[in-house]
Amino acid sequence: MASVRLLYFGYLADAAGTRGGSVDLPAHIGDTDQLLDWLEPSLAEELRRPSVRIVINNEIKAGTVPIHPGDEIGFIPPMSGG
Amino acid sequence: MASVRLLYFGYLADAAGTRGGSVDLPAHIGDTDQLLDWLEPSLAEELRRPSVRIVINNEIKAGTVPIHPGDEIGFIPPMSGG
Amino acid sequence: MIRVQEEPFDPAAETASLALRSGNAGAVATFIGIVRGANEEAAVTRLHLDHYPGFTESVIGRMAAEAEARFPLLALAVVHRYGDLGPGEPIVFVGAAAEHRRAALEAVDYLMDRLKTEAPFWKREDGPTGFRWIEPREADHADRARWTSEGSEDARD
Amino acid sequence: MIRVQEEPFDPAAETASLALRSGNAGAVATFIGIVRGANEEAAVTRLHLDHYPGFTESVIGRMAAEAEARFPLLALAVVHRYGDLGPGEPIVFVGAAAEHRRAALEAVDYLMDRLKTEAPFWKREDGPTGFRWIEPREADHADRARWTSEGSEDARD
Question: Which of residues 81-110 of C touch D (CB under 8 A)?
Fold first, then answer.
């Protein structure tokens, strides 16, 4: 059982009802696609939108990527600073 | 006899040895070309350079233009602010 | 110098501090982004900026390094707020010092375009009738695209 | 707001004053030109700026009006010094406030290009080995020319 940190930003925190935190993942979850399958379906649908990016340990990732114990996994909507 | 103000700026003030002032022009001088003919030849040569502009009463003029009593006539090198 | 902070900052003091650090600079260009009291006719009483601690600083740091690689700068400053801001409050300060003006002006322009489209902040406008999360405008993406025609070193996935 | 003055000015105070006058501005861009202690390797101990009282103000006033006609601005400031300046002293401040950043940034860029090539100032650099009058660089004329391709309303003889 791997513990990771899931984080939600912008409107995704509203959709998730939380800004995130540590979760213990079942042993079979080894990548981001399996993680999304495991999450609440209505939240997973939001997170699968093409405009949502996944940030793992402060790096933006594209496609399905492996997850390791201790990872910080952020879900972010389109960014807009300035 | 018309009185006008002649003004020299930038390196032209060095060339003229003065920043200018009021001068009384002979009656036959009616335009800027005649004015240049009347000035000291070495100064006139500097003032006739294509890069030198003539400003009459705060307006830049091109070519030979008439002169009237009371005019302020400035000779300016290429401008550079900022 | 990069700071991401919740506290208000004084753009005038940032300008003065940048000029002090800039040595033989002949040119200092700055940009200040300010919360507007209305956006597309809708009243905005508060702007909330969400950010991603750590990641936000890291992305802005990379942008600043890319600006310094692209333009001959003597000093650079980016200050960006998060949290709750009211109308009239500065959100962002970008300042660049260089020997000549083109590098300073272009670096500020470049960094603002990148911040608008790639900096990890998420804005929520709160008004009398509710709130809405806002995303970069089409114009922001078009502005950002101006900088990739010359090269691809900063093209992102 | 346009000022041509012999006295030093404080760019930070000018920035603050511009922001105060700018109403619902979301964007304030500024540029500060500073006397450099060296130009093309030659030491500069003093920069002397000659100007043409009355004419200088009038030309800058027309430039500012053209900037306001060309860009949607909420406030504009140009402060320019003349007389004797030492290294590190600000020569010029240009600031523009607008609803969105592109207008503010472009107005500052535009005004600086026009000031560099068309503002009635003449600069003499004084150094340990004498003085020299300086003229706009080729790059300044090239920068200025960028603004005429779109229209001719401000093309000059």
Answer: 99-102, 104-105, 108-109
Give the strand pairing for D46-51 and C42-43: unpaired
Question: How far is D38 from C74, CA to CA, in rounded Å?
Answer: 15
Q: Check if the beta carbon of residue C49 is closer than 8 Å to that of residue C83.
A: yes
Q: What is the mean pLDDT of chain D?
A: 90
What is residue A2's three-state secondary structure?
strand
CB–CB contact C122 A60 (8 Å): no
Reading the block at residue A37, the tokens are 């399958």
The residue ranking higher by pLDDT, B2 or D118, is D118
Is B67 in contact with B4 (CB distance < 8 Å)?
yes
Of D19, D139, D143, the CB nearest to C32: D19
Residue A33's Cβ-count burial label (10 Å; 0-12, 13-18, 19+) is: middle
Q: Do C52 and A11 touch (CB under 8 A)?
A: no
Task: Please tell me whether residue A6 adopts helix, strand or coil conformation.
Answer: strand
Chains C and A touch (3+ CB pairs under 8 A): yes
pLDDT of residue D75: 96
What's the whole-number mean pLDDT along residues C32-39? 88
Residue D153 has pLDDT above 60, yes or no: no
CA-CA-CA-CA torsion sign (D149, D152, D153, D156): positive
Q: Which residues of C touch D16 (CB under 8 A)?
A: 11-12
Shortest CA distance to D55 belongs to which of B66, B31, B81, B39? B81
CA distances from D144 to A67, D54, D116 (A): 54, 24, 8
> Which chain A residues contact residue C51 at CB under 8 A?
9
Q: What is the mean pLDDT of residues D127-144?
A: 89
Identity of the amino acid at D31: F
Q: How many other CB atoms are found less than 10 A from the CB of residue D21?
A: 14
A29: amino acid identity, one letter: I
Contacts of C123 in chain A (CB under 8 A): 80
* Residues A3-44 pLDDT 10s: 999 999 999 999 999 999 999 999 999 999 999 999 999 999
Lowest mean pLDDT across B4-18, C53-67, D5-19: D5-19
Of the ranges B34-38, B78-82, D100-104, D147-151, which one carries the lowest mean pLDDT score?
D147-151
Residue D121 to residue B7, Cβ atoms within 8 A: no
Transcribe chain D into DSSP letters: -EEEESS---HHHHHHHHHHTTTT-SEEEEEEEE--SEETTEE-SEEEEEE-TTHHHHHHHHHHHHHHHHS-EEEEEEEEE-EEE-TT-EEEEEEEEESSHHHHHHHHHHHHHHHHHHSSEEEEEEETTEEEEE---HHHHHHHHTTTTT--TT---
C111 in D contact zone (CB under 8 Å): no
